[in-house]
């Protein structure tokens, strides 16, 4: 541990609580430096919603020179962390809150897997279904029992159709 203030009295230098405070502050700083940028952060604070133009899925659009566009969250992540686009090539900038319009820097993180961007299947915290539910729906589905399945699993006709036609939950066999 390095004492940052050499103008302390001998009593202050021997004050154990002051030393413990400094050690905890140094440890917290080291922890912040060692954070994995690909891990979703803890949700702190409200979402900051992009108010500019958006893509059809709700993600913000940032217009760049020469007619290029980039998602607002990606642009903000690059700017906030002093990076270049090449530095995060192959990564998706995701929001831990799963809100497409959110650009709160505290919610943004790098994601290695694009299908994880908003959570998919049972990994999506908003999902009503599990992989087992989807298997059961596919086994039991017939035109004459669609309404009963929709009520039992709390899903819409569109969702039921996507599941049975394998447009969603494709990973479930």
**What gross morphology would you assign?**
extended
Alpha-beta content class: mainly alpha
Q: What is the string of SSEs from the N terminus onward?
A: HHEEHEEHHH
- Largest sheet data: 2 strands, antiparallel
Number of helices: 6
- Estimate the strand proportion: 5-15%
What's the rounded overall pLDDT mean? 79
Compute the CA-based radius of gyration: 24 Å
Number of strands: 4
Helix content: 25-40%
Straight-line N-to-C gap: 56 Å
Runs in which pLDDT lies below 50 for 5 or more consecutive residues are none
Give the total of domains.
Answer: 3
Cross-sheet strand order for the largest sheet: 1-2
Structure description:
The chain is 34% helix and 8% strand. It folds into three domains: 1-34; 37-118, no CATH class; 121-164, no CATH class. The longest helix is centred in the first third of the chain and has 19 residues, at 16-34. Strands 1-2 form a two-stranded antiparallel ribbon. The protein has a two-stranded antiparallel sheet with strand order 3-4. The chain is mainly alpha-helical and 173 residues long. A hairpin with a 5-residue loop joins strand 1 (61-63) and strand 2. The chain has six helices and four strands, in the order ααββαββααα. The radius of gyration is 24 Å and the shape is extended.
Summary tags:
3 domains; mainly alpha; 34% helix; 173 residues; 4 strands; two-stranded antiparallel ribbon; two-stranded antiparallel sheet
Secondary structure layout:
Blueprint: H1 10-14, H2 16-34, E1 61-63, E2 69-71, H3 72-80, E3 92-95, E4 108-111, H4 131-140, H5 146-153, H6 157-164
Antiparallel strand pairs: 1-2, 3-4
């Amino acid at each position: 541990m390095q004492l940052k203030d050499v103008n302390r009295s001998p009593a202050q230098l021997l004050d154990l609580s002051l030393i413990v405070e400094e050690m905890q502050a140094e440890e917290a700083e080291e922890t912040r430096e060692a954070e994995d940028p690909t891990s979703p952060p803890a949700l702190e604070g409200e979402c900051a919603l992009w108010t500019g133009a958006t893509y059809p899925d709700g993600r913000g659009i940032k217009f760049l020179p020469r007619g290029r566009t980039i998602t607002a969250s990606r642009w903000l992540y690059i700017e906030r962390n002093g990076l270049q686009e090449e530095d995060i090539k192959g990564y998706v900038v995701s929001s831990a809150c799963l809100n497409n319009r959110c650009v709160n820097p505290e919610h943004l993180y790098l994601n290695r897997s694009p299908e994880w961007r908003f959570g998919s299947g049972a990994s999506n915290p908003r999902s009503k279904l599990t992989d087992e539910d989807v298997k059961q729906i596919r086994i039991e589905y017939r035109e004459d029992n669609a309404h009963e399945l929709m009520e039992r699993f709390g899903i819409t006709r569109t969702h039921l159709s996507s599941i049975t036609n394998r447009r969603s939950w494709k990973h479930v066999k």
